[in-house]
Amino acid sequence: MKKIIPRISTRGYYDLRYGKTIKNNSYFLYPKKSFDKLIGSKELVIVIHGLRNDNAGAIAKAVLVKKRLLHIGYCFPVVGFSYDSNTTGAHLLKHAKRALSTGQKIAIKNGRNLGMFIEYFKSISPKTKIRLMGHSLGSQVILSTVEYLAKKSKNTDIVESAYLFGASITSDVPSSKKYGHLLEKIIKNKIVNYYSPTDEVLHWAHKSKFVKGPLGLDGAIGKPISKYRQKLVHPKNHRFASYASVLPSFP
């Protein structure tokens, strides 16, 4: 029997067609006992997937990250964050814009959910370093989580570091007045952006004006905050597996 990857889930909390909130719950943990065992861990990585992932896809992304990290010598626990990103019609070109817009709405709302988990876990395991790893739309979840956490002064430096792959948030975020100081406040160590000018999905999204200037395509513009780093990578395509395969080291 395969070992179950623990996951923080908000599946079924949001409408897949329009992004309307269905449940105001915070999140649920599966299996709960697995999270009890994580208390006191030196570090914890939370993997946040992108658009067009059902629950099985979310689990698969966490598994591939765990395998890659073990391969490059990182042995601390990895858990998945599973949310309603398999929006209606996301696989069809004629519905792509609406499906992406819905996905973005859901990703923004999930900042509260993931933020609440981080607050909870740090309250029971204060010495654990939490690292966030997001792919594509997962970068929006991370940004919205930072926004949520920044509302409370006690959350300063609550997240150790964040890693973005094929990020779909805009290229001005690391240098913007709106988000720059929030990232500086919440992320203790560093924010690393793995970008690829040959990412076909981000190129299409930019050209189609669905996402204007994705951070994961050409990196940041302006003068980014001091904790921001970016690394040029050459994945085969936009898939999380392709980005994970070119990850040279961690953290």
TrEMBL record:
Keywords: Membrane, Transmembrane, Transmembrane helix. One of its GO terms (cellular component) is membrane. The lineage of its organism: Archaea, Nitrososphaerota, Nitrososphaeria, Nitrosopumilales, Nitrosopumilaceae. The keyword Transport does not apply. It comes from Candidatus Nitrosarchaeum limnium BG20. It comes from the Archaea. It holds the Pfam family DUF726. Transmembrane segments: none annotated. This is DUF726 domain-containing protein. It is found in: Membrane. It is a multi-pass membrane protein. PANTHER family: TRANSMEMBRANE AND COILED-COIL DOMAIN-CONTAINING PROTEIN 4, TRANSMEMBRANE AND COILED-COIL DOMAIN-CONTAINING PROTEIN 4 TMCO4.
